[in-house]
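Q&A log
Question type: sequence-to-structure
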Amino acid sequence: MSKLEELIQQYCPDGVEYMKLGGFATQWYRGAGIKKDEIGQEGIPCIRYGEIHTIYKIWFDKCVSHTDETKQPSKKYADYGDILFAITSEDIPFIGNSVAYMGKERIMVGGDIVVMKHTQNPKYISYALSTIDAVSQKGKGKVKSKVVHTNVPSLKEIVIPVPPLPVQEEIVRILDAFTELQAELQAELQAELQIRKQQYNYYLDNLLNFNNINRGGYQAEVRWMKMSEVFETITDYTAAGSFKSIAENVKYLKSPDYAMLIRTTDLKSRFRKGDFIYVSKSAFDYLWRVKMDKECIVMPNVGNCGEIYYVHPNSLPYDNCALAPNAILVRSKLFNNKYLSYCLQVECFQKQLAKITSPVGQSKFNKTELKKLLVPIPSLADQQKIVDILDRFDTLTTDLTQGLPAEIEKRRQQYEYYRDKLLTFKRKGA
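Response status: OK
Response body:
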């Protein structure tokens, strides 16, 4: 019998009480606004809600940010053991993300953070709030808007198992050790994956470097052609009509409907986020110029310019799909679209793209300038040879079903399964 089993037998042989957070929390309050330009390297340690989403995980004891306490008109603080909730997010799965503060210093808490004080083991509560069941409960308190929100009344309703403190402490000891091991393995795999990607990018650039065969470029005769000559289709969301006309004919829907709008963020995440945008049949018909019923290449022309996505209709999660705003769709009937997608990723094309991309404010470029850029076109047979080689490399680095990314994903799933199993108990009174 393990130590945990012995403790459960000793302290809660009849089961564990499942409690609402509001049942054991001693105090709740919201933080106060700390602006981005008020963050620095000196002053009192502080935390903003975005850092809960991006930097901190289960617990932290040191802040990455500081602020001048004297310049804050309204001040809210957190102390050792407090649970901090981010009550604002752009995505429902992340609403109510939480972390335990384990530092000795008092810290200042920014807006859109809720502080929960309690008498339980803070690390245990934070682990319990990271389970799949707890995360699903957090999403129930959302408010529909451009971003999603939750609130204290909703947080109070979240139910988690609350065993006696000795049991909590043993679970924390086990999960801390498992988390450390998981982090080490993850770091090793990520480092290896990064090396593989660097190798892949080197090989990609050299294989498609037709100007310098001696560096390892693919020895093939090529024509350098303008994008307008290569792609019969170069279009985007705004090709449907004026902004006024689009606004009148296309209404975004959060619930599944006739068609889905495909964003570059969806392609980047491989449709794992789940916060999709849908449109009606009439809206889909209105957007006929950017229907994604045939293979194509998608590239953002606002924001992350330079990203390239090859899209085959079979890879999309919905029967009817159309391109969302802030991206350009290109398609060729004469040449291998998969080859072209690789070609647009290499350094020689990316340098051309950078020259037409505005560096002021949010990066962007337009279709007119894009059409003038040059791409190397070998024979169709050579295009296919290059695709076959690069597809094998790409699988090893980016395919979620094979290679290192799959191993990383398996490690994550293994950790989550073990954590959730460890935090599932026989209910008292059941």
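Response note: Residues 121 and 199 are 46 Å apart (CA to CA).
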